[in-house]
């Protein structure tokens, strides 16, 4: 398959905000394709760009605590919040082994230190008897879930996201539930995926969180680093259907 056509399939899907296929770089920033060419800035040194058999044909290496960010004021369309919030966050990931354990953040607007959580795509949250699955975290309160130390409101799939392999993970929110898809299909888990959540998304206001990729601010420092390759990162302003997600999956593999 022509790799440019793979990127085009994301761009032509209704509701796209931004797609980073890591083909366009300017200085220390990666420029998105689509209606909003937001710039992801390297935050811990330069990241390597490599050839990859997925959408766009490129991926970045986020090993060694590398991560990316866009200041909140520079990406207003990614600041999705309120009772009418709808979105899809998706990425191609190829996880690699690491010496540390714990959850890994892929992308979203999520600051735990300042209690400015909105939405975030994670892997390996390790809550609700989970381990190594993709997870779609949502918050209407910004801080921890009432009655808990941490935020506990998350769609969590059944299938571990295997390391050393390319996988397409998608997180959607349709105003009533958060849902995780793995490799084009709903990764169903009773009670947790889809995860009922009609409460909407927290409004962080002017002091809310930035959009980050590969890490989040928690415990007064940057952490929850994603470890591996990342490609084909896209955000939409609506919850895509399973059929649409399956089509994007099939069109973005080589």
TrEMBL record:
SUPFAM superfamilies noted in UniProt: Concanavalin A-like lectins/glucanases
Organism phylogeny: Bacteria, Bacillati, Bacillota, Bacilli, Bacillales
Stated name of the protein: LamG domain-containing protein
One Pfam match: Laminin_G_3
InterPro entries: ConA-like_dom_sf
Highest taxon of the lineage: Bacteria
Species whose genome carries this gene: Paenibacillus nasutitermitis
């Amino acid at each position: 398959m022509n790799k440019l056509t793979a990127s085009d399939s994301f761009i032509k899907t209704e509701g796209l905000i931004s797609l980073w296929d890591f083909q366009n770089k300017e200085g220390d920033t990666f420029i998105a394709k689509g209606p909003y060419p937001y710039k992801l800035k390297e935050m811990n040194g330069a990241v390597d760009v490599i050839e990859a058999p997925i959408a766009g044909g490129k991926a970045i290496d986020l090993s060694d605590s590398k991560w990316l960010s866009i200041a909140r004021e520079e990406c207003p369309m990614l600041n999705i919040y309120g009772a009418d919030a709808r979105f899809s966050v998706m990425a191609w990931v190829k996880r690699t082994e690491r010496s540390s354990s714990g959850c890994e953040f892929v992308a979203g607007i999520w600051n735990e230190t300042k209690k400015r959580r909105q939405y975030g795509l994670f892997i390996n949250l390790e809550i609700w008897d989970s381990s190594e699955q993709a997870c779609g975290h949502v918050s209407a309160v910004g801080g921890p879930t009432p009655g808990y130390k941490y935020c506990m409101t998350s769609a969590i799939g059944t299938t571990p996201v295997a390391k050393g392999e390319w996988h397409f993970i998608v997180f959607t929110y349709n105003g009533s539930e958060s849902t995780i898809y793995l490799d084009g299909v709903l990764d169903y888990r009773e009670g947790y995926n889809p995860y009922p959540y009609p409460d909407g998304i927290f409004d962080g206001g002017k002091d809310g969180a930035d959009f980050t990729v590969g890490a989040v601010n928690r415990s007064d420092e940057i952490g929850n680093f994603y470890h591996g390759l990342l490609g084909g990162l896209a955000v939409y302003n609506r919850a895509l259907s399973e059929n649409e997600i399956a089509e994007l999956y099939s069109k973005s593999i080589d």
